[in-house]
């Protein structure tokens, strides 16, 4: 059902020939468009200032609001109306849209009030976003969804509360922690301990040569959507809730994952060999999502190897990130471009803003519109235009940019 929707989509892979980068532009790719842009030469693109971008963003939002099925409660934040509500909240926080602030927040409230545990595919995420929207509107009602959110922790505290895998981001405990990061709330220690205990038990049972591992629907994923990297990222985000011994296990696992790199990328699952012609370079599976774990690791302990790993991810994304799977943040062009905004915040190097600008420009080209796959949830946060809007708005305020609901800077 719903929990497995993303996994099923990811398994419908198409081939993607990619030899070494020098000849990559000559070859025809089925996963990504060739990046024909020249790289940064010291100047940002002039045509992407606020007065150019703001009307385009507003027009896109109008289009989304006409399309979003407000009475459809499926999909949660991932591909349901709740994700649109989050996008409207996000845009309303940007000073460039202060004239629309009230309008966007009221629209967000209408959507969220229509929605009736799990983060990106269920209740926890909806409660978290509802609390943000009510708070932004100055409504005392924000206490209600917050209370519902807190009560969910009892659901996900038992070690094996979900048969398919209790720890990953979309339906498991890592997602609850991810939502709590936005809200900054308690009961976290129990959840962290449950994730660590679960990972230890799994690693022991499967005789892994490293301390923590997880599976989702029987697959040992490594990437951000269902895998080890986002689970470890959430544990690092709450490392104050961990004992010294637990922290050691997490850092050992971070270094283990760093060593799984193959040509600046990570396979979708543990032990797989990346076939270059069929390589996944997505936020959900691969370097564009794994980068956030190493960004978090670098922000905490400043070891240069973590930053170097992020930078290599960025180079791969510049080559292969103009994805044909649509405009979204999960496995689309905006998700790729967010890696550049992440790197800009980590390094202060304007080259990364320039690269993000180029990817933004590409979204509006005829080549992209005619050559990219059609998306079923075109208005959605993760697969459709709501995530793209978040990226375009963050490009206008790169110092505050964050991949939606996946913060590393808190």
TrEMBL record:
It comes from the Eukaryota. Belongs to the LanC-like protein family. The keyword Magnesium does not apply. This is LanC-like protein 3. Residues 1-10 have a biased composition (Basic and acidic residues). CDD domains: euk_LANCL. Signal peptide: none annotated. PANTHER family: LANC-LIKE PROTEIN, LANC-LIKE PROTEIN 3. Residues 1-23 are annotated as: Disordered. GO terms for cellular component: plasma membrane. Keywords: Membrane, Metal-binding, Transmembrane, Transmembrane helix, Zinc. It comes from Salarias fasciatus (Jewelled blenny). The gene is lancl3. GO terms for molecular function: metal ion binding. GO terms for biological process: carbohydrate metabolic process; peptide modification. Pfam families: LANC_like. InterPro entries: 6hp_glycosidase-like_sf (IPR012341), LANC-like (IPR007822), LanC-like_prot_euk (IPR020464). The chain crosses the membrane at residues 117-134. The keyword Transmembrane helix applies. Zn(2+) binds at residues 284, 330-331.
